[in-house]
Amino acid sequence: MARSLPEVVRNYAERAVGESSPSAGRVRVSQTGRMQQKPDGRWLRFTAIEDFEVDHVGFVWRAKFPIVPLVSLLIVDELDDDDGELIGRLWGRLRVLSATGTEVMEAQAQRYLSELVWCPQAILINQRLMWTSINDRRVAVSTTVGGRRVSVDLGFDEAGDVVAASTDARYRTIGTEQIHTPWSGSFSDYERIGGLRIPTRAQVGWDLGA
Fold this sequence. Notes:
Blueprint: H1 7-17, E1 26-36, E2 43-53, E3 58-68, E4 71-80, E5 83-90, E6 94-99, H2 102-114, H3 121-125, E7 130-135, E8 138-145, E9 148-156, E10 162-174, E11 177-193, E12 196-206
Antiparallel strand pairs: 1-2, 2-3, 3-4, 4-5, 5-6, 7-8, 8-9, 9-10, 10-11, 11-12
């Protein structure tokens, strides 16, 4: 709790945590949504469970995408400090996707940074996070993964809530390549759930240009 944080960040985190304990552990959230792999692609619905580490940079996202009747794709996106992997399996068994390496871990670390809104305790106690004020309503949060520093900008509204996350360079998988691409997200509809004040709606995506 003695960490030095920009005022807007500390105020946000303390309000989000409230009476909950900011001690080390995990935060679990459940999600429903839909995802599109390319601008003209099919929208795929999913349900997911995501576990966030509070005292270090790590998460596990387990998502199920029904493809057609009796066929589903299970995705596991997992990072634990400098160990990360993205895996996809049909029927939970047949591996159809596997991505590892420094670029994958950098993108995963940026995901963790942008999703701190669902694990606000980490803002207060995670010593792997570094904070820089940009202006009264914008900060950069960064960490190191694979020996490299990565960051995400967080934007706050007048009420002091995080409503935006963005980066000019996040690796995106294209075939067998990893391409730096601008990425951004928005957060809204804050509610207090399980003692934490968190957004219940989010929208994220790559900026692919015109």
